[in-house]
Amino acid sequence: MTPRDASEPNGSRWSDLDRPPLNVTALRRGLVRPGGLWSEVDVVQRTGSTNSDLVARAAKGEVTEGAVLVAEEQTAGRGRLDRQWTAPPRSGLFFSVLLTPSEVPVARWGWLPLLTGVAVATGLSRAAGVDTALKWPNDLLVTVGGAERKAGGILAERAGDDGVVIGVGINVSLKADELPVPTAGSLGLAGAVSTDRDPLLRGVLRSLEDWYGKWRAAGGDPGPSGLQEAYAAGCATLGRVVRAELPGDRSVVGEAVAVDGDGRLVLATEEGMQEPVGAGDIVHLRPA
């Protein structure tokens, strides 16, 4: 799909006063600058998956590090474990970025989804005035009516030998009757002071640029970069009893006590063992 300015006549910025299209010209002006991370910003009206599109463009050599692809609507957005992610047009932020951290050992690239979570939570806290929390490894939680709800997710995919495409989906203005499942939420339902997606997207991408720069400067080490500490401070999973549903139909129940240097969630089981979990689905069983 050819990138298109969301403010073109057939995507009139005022076609939906509650959900105006993104202003790609203003986004480029605010984000793409000499010496900065973001090299280009494209907005498409509708696509299957921004992650799939950006991975394909990277494979063809059409984009370089810092490319940002945003969709006003995704028809085949994916979360972890190939779960579907759908939302009404212009009701959220659905975007992917290409990163090529060549100076960071590949073994540390697993921190990128966690880094993105910290960056997104930080950016939204400032721009939307909403308290957010992170559910390991890649969910963004908000509080709606006293209950934790998922308002966003992150998906990282390799792009060739030297790149990673990270996709982010955030429910911004979804109303209660538009939620895909009862456990979902949105920034609007959580009392955001603003649901204007232009400043929200700029805030998130600037925060991501800042955290990525710190992490990259530290050679990907989550300690000196401050990333490990920041993630632990914002992680709603730590201190809770959880069930980790692991590959091979195995599950482990224990208290989430730490996120280790490899970004794994460490569970203390009833048998007195500490088991690091590197991949799996986490279910919060009891509040912290």
TrEMBL record:
UniProt keyword Ligase, yes or no: yes
Keyword Plastid: no
EC supergroup of this enzyme: ligase
Domain BPL/LPL catalytic span(s) in chain numbering: 31-216
Enzyme nomenclature, EC number: 6.3.4.15
Gene3D superfamilies with a match to the protein in the record: 2.30.30.100, Bira Bifunctional Protein, Domain 2 (3.30.930.10)
Keyword terms, alphabetized: Biotin, Ligase
GO molecular function: biotin--[biotin carboxyl-carrier protein] ligase activity
Family matches, as PANTHER family: BIOTIN PROTEIN LIGASE, BIOTIN--PROTEIN LIGASE
Identification of the protein by name: biotin--[biotin carboxyl-carrier protein] ligase
Organism: Streptomyces iakyrus
